[in-house]
Amino acid sequence: MIIKISKLFTTSFFLNFIHFLRYIISLYRKRECLYSPFFAGLSAFSA
Fold first, then answer.
1. What do you get for the CA distance between the two ends of the chain, in Å?
2. 1-47: per-residue pLDDT in tens?
3. What is the reported pLDDT for 8?
4. DSSP string across 18-37
5. Quick one: pLDDT at residue 34?
6. What is the Cα–Cα distance from 4 to 39, expressed in whole angstroms?
7. How far is CA 27 from the centre of its chain?
8. Radius of gyration, alpha carbons of the chain
9. Chain centroid, CA 11 distance in Å
10. What is the reported pLDDT for 1?
11. Has this prediction a pTM greater than 0.90?
12. Is 16 helix (H, G, I), strand (E, B) or coil?
């Protein structure tokens, strides 16, 4: 029971995270000039 709930939560979190990433990427493409230093720092931090 607990395993099922945690798996469901993980899956929904993962899907929400993918959706959030796609949203961030679309924002980045729209406002590349403004945010490129920020995203360069963010990608360097996550890498």
1. 36
2. 667 878 878 888 888 888 999 998 888 777 665 666 776 777 777 65
3. 79
4. HHHHHHHHHHHHHTHHHHHH
5. 60
6. 36
7. 12
8. 15
9. 14
10. 61
11. no
12. helix
